[in-house]
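Closing statement on the zinc ion sub-project.
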Amino acid sequence: MTSEPAIAGDRNTVGGWPILEPGQSWPGCACGERMVLFFQIDVPDDIAGFGGEHLLVFQCPVHNEACFGRAQLPERYWETPPPYGNEMVHWRILRHRGGIVAESADEFLQPPRLVLRDAGPDDKWAFRVGGKPTWIQDAMYHTCACGVDLEFLVQIPENFGFPKRPEVPEQDGAFSTDEYGLLLGNEIYLFACPNRCDPAAAWPVNQN
Ligand SMILES: [Zn+2]
Ligand SMILES: [Zn+2]
């Protein structure tokens, strides 16, 4: 995360202006709130299976819960809460190859630019794209509703903070007064469908 503020059209950002696919709208939570854009990145070309995709990760500004799933994920698991303790789906992970810049910026997070660099051997617990997951607990794998196994894409460390704008409220359940966290600050392993059966076919494994 840099100290440079993002501008409209930047593709690697926390907050800022989401790059969407034609016809895709800014995701909303079941509660009616427009979701916060936590981050977006262009997945580097050398990431097997996903290189060249644009990845966006959103979560409701109000709902901040962990996410639970069993190995076989149900139909449309990104919008219908799997029945294992999830009250609603308050997050959305999108992938696409389009390039429409949203008309407005995220209102909750400061928008620093992100820079991706090659990970070294000491980066196994860093915020990482590609490679292999570094599990805290036993490895957890999921099968997409379309029948293929989801593949690892991004790991986000426990209690990783995204800087909030000073004028917005503190996040419910947050570990920080000036940052927002994803999925209650769990270690997050984003897995995505290599079949691309839907732009939202991705699942965040939570561990702590
Ligand atoms: Zn919500
Ligand atoms: Zn799928």
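The two ends are 23 Å apart (CA to CA). With this model delivered, the sub-project is considered complete and its resources will be redirected to Aim 3.
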